[in-house]
Predict the structure.
Amino acid sequence: MGVCMPTANSAAIVQRARKLRRATTDGEKRLWSELREFRRLYGLHVRRQAPIGHYVADFAIHERKLVIEVDGEWHFTDEGFRRDKLRDSWLANRGYCVVRFTTGDVGENLAGCIEEILRVLGLMEDTPTPDPSPQGGGERAPAGVRT
């Protein structure tokens, strides 16, 4: 199936994932309350604190090779940026796309975060261009074309 699952330190990484599931942040809890419905709504299984290689993703949709991260303030330090860059590169080399949100994004605009995830997954319908006014002067954009 091509999913990169834990290998060398399998037991350790699975144990770490379990520990992280028990210590879920408020932002992760809020996002999980929405993502857990993706199976029912879209037929997509979202895993929480999912081991991928030697990393643990906050959320992963393996069949779509998507990792979703909720970043707290540690991620915005020099060390955090460096580690995230290495991790994102490692995941990208295995075909994963990483979408990152800040804890603030999730807290202040949860609907926008879900819309972005759906857009990345190709499940967000484009907003249709309104019909031209009855007086004319405008044209409707072809389907799938943004103006």
The chain is about 40% helix and 15% strand. Residues 64 and 121 are 7 Å apart (CA to CA). The chain has one domain: 10-120.
